[in-house]
């Protein structure tokens, strides 16, 4: 009886709990492991019939485990070489439920990047309140803090991100044009048409993690970003097959070399339909779960 109840709950809430953990850790693969291990541990040692509110119980457990990971030495952003970018979520063909979840909860890549500005506790309160619309008593219970402390954490979090809240969702028609123009520029080496789509104060952030060549600091301004793309194109670093792929509910590009993914590029736009930010991932740990060409 308990096992059947637990299995039913797992099937109904697995993706939502994984999305919660992903928002906290910035890694979908890590989030999947956290949720799966939690249910396996509970299956071996727990009793679902003895818990009145399974959802509250598992949300609290997922948040605690995710925060432990986020605060662990191996996840310390201060020790990371260069900028740290979240791992994208790939919208696997046929996973209608994941596709729906991404649209409903707005797990956009720009939103995930924005969350990196927050401390672990600020991030937890912000996600639970803003994304999952929990009330303060529930948040306080999950985090083991007072309601007053949670309100202060949320206030600080909102102050940190208020200028960077991305417009959601991106217009797929606009992004498809960015993807098409960028792909042609990479193939021809002519970046003039792409320049027309970029804001003057645009930023390019690349994540190599010390495991692949990447800029150690964000590249700022249209001119410098153009020089960056032109430079790596001349060196052959964009040689291969650029394929449009849906990630975090939006369209991005994966560069394949012999069928193996080697680079991921995502875009962030502004309200005028211009490219405000490029996110380039080359760290193999961040792209290992990309679909194989």
TrEMBL record:
<dbReference type="InterPro" id="IPR032710">
    <property type="entry name" value="NTF2-like_dom_sf"/>
</dbReference>
<dbReference type="GO" id="GO:0016987">
    <property type="term" value="F:sigma factor activity"/>
</dbReference>
<feature type="domain" description="RNA polymerase sigma factor 70 region 4 type 2">
    <location>
        <begin position="111"/>
        <end position="160"/>
    </location>
</feature>
<dbReference type="GO" id="GO:0003677">
    <property type="term" value="F:DNA binding"/>
</dbReference>
<dbReference type="GO" id="GO:0006352">
    <property type="term" value="P:DNA-templated transcription initiation"/>
</dbReference>
<protein>
    <submittedName>
        <fullName>Sigma-70 family RNA polymerase sigma factor</fullName>
    </submittedName>
</protein>
<dbReference type="InterPro" id="IPR007627">
    <property type="entry name" value="RNA_pol_sigma70_r2"/>
</dbReference>
<comment type="subunit">
    <text>Interacts transiently with the RNA polymerase catalytic core formed by RpoA, RpoB, RpoC and RpoZ (2 alpha, 1 beta, 1 beta' and 1 omega subunit) to form the RNA polymerase holoenzyme that can initiate transcription.</text>
</comment>
<dbReference type="InterPro" id="IPR013249">
    <property type="entry name" value="RNA_pol_sigma70_r4_t2"/>
</dbReference>
<dbReference type="InterPro" id="IPR052704">
    <property type="entry name" value="ECF_Sigma-70_Domain"/>
</dbReference>
<dbReference type="Pfam" id="PF04542">
    <property type="entry name" value="Sigma70_r2"/>
</dbReference>
<dbReference type="InterPro" id="IPR013324">
    <property type="entry name" value="RNA_pol_sigma_r3/r4-like"/>
</dbReference>
<dbReference type="InterPro" id="IPR013325">
    <property type="entry name" value="RNA_pol_sigma_r2"/>
</dbReference>
<dbReference type="Pfam" id="PF08281">
    <property type="entry name" value="Sigma70_r4_2"/>
</dbReference>
<feature type="domain" description="RNA polymerase sigma-70 region 2">
    <location>
        <begin position="9"/>
        <end position="71"/>
    </location>
</feature>
<dbReference type="InterPro" id="IPR014284">
    <property type="entry name" value="RNA_pol_sigma-70_dom"/>
</dbReference>
<dbReference type="InterPro" id="IPR036388">
    <property type="entry name" value="WH-like_DNA-bd_sf"/>
</dbReference>
């Amino acid at each position: 009886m308990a096992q059947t109840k637990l299995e039913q709950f797992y099937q109904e809430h697995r993706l939502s709990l994984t999305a919660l953990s992903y928002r906290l850790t910035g890694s979908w693969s890590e989030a999947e492991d956290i949720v799966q291990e939690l249910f396996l541990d509970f299956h071996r040692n727990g009793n679902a019939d003895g818990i009145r509110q399974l959802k509250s119980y598992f949300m609290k457990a997922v948040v605690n485990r995710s925060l432990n990971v986020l605060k662990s030495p191996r996840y310390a952003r201060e020790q990371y070489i260069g900028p740290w970018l979240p791992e994208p979520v790939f919208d696997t063909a046929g996973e209608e439920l994941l596709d729906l979840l991404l649209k409903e909860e707005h797990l956009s890549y720009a939103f995930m990047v924005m969350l990196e500005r927050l401390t672990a506790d600020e991030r937890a309160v912000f996600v639970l309140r803003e994304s999952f619309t929990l009330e303060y008593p529930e948040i306080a219970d999950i985090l083991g803090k007072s309601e007053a402390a949670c309100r202060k954490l949320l206030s600080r979090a909102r102050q940190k991100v208020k200028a960077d809240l991305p417009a959601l969702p991106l217009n797929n028609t606009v992004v498809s044009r960015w993807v098409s123009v960028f792909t042609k520029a990479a193939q021809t080496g002519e970046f003039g048409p792409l320049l027309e789509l970029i804001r003057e104060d645009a930023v390019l952030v690349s994540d190599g993690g010390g495991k692949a060549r990447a800029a150690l600091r964000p590249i700022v301004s249209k001119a410098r970003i153009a020089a960056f793309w032109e430079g790596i194109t001349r060196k052959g670093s964009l040689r291969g097959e650029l394929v449009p792929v849906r990630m975090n509910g939006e369209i991005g590009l994966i560069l394949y070399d012999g069928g193996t993914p080697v680079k991921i590029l995502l875009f962030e736009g502004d309200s005028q339909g211009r490219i405000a930010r490029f996110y380039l991932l080359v760290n193999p740990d961040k792209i290992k779960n990309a679909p194989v060409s």
